[in-house]
User: Fold this.
Amino acid sequence: YSLEGMELAKQLNMKSELPYFYHNIAEAYSAKGLNEKADDYYVLSIDLSKEIRDVYSQIGGLTSFAEHKQKMGRNNEAIQYLLSALDVSKEKENPIQLENIHRQLFKIYKSKGRYEEALDTHIQYTQMKDSLESKEKLLAIGRIESKYELEKVNARNELLKKEQALIEAEIALQKTQKYWLILMLFLALVASIVVVWVYLQIKKRIL
Assistant:
């Protein structure tokens, strides 16, 4: 699918989509152990991401390439790619990507016995992780507060709607009572006129 998508993106001149297709193809080749082909597509993905200034795609390509090199036992190359990713990440700090970079560097430094660098990277990784967790907690609190405020507004609106309905019902009742009162007065007036007319007719006959 990625190969077909890549060809389609080329035909449609969708340059911004190509780094993602190159990256997916590289991952597929890496999983199959076709390392040279994987290398070629990782490089294509990283170079094109750099050309079109897609920082997030470039960082993703560099970190994935580093992980691929680490699986091959080429840790020094993996470190270089991770350090490059770290430099690129300074343009647009993405906490999740930075955390991933520091985590990978820590594992490699530790495996190579470079404990001082591993410790320094671990501290940065921990700080990044704590920062990310703090941001997530703040976002979660913000979502809860927003939900609470929204529920308050909705409850207030519902109360206003009920109050408005009661007012309208009261006005309708008053109008109905007014109409009935007018009708009763009109009927009473008509009845009075009829009574007086009948009385006068009876009186005429007697005279």
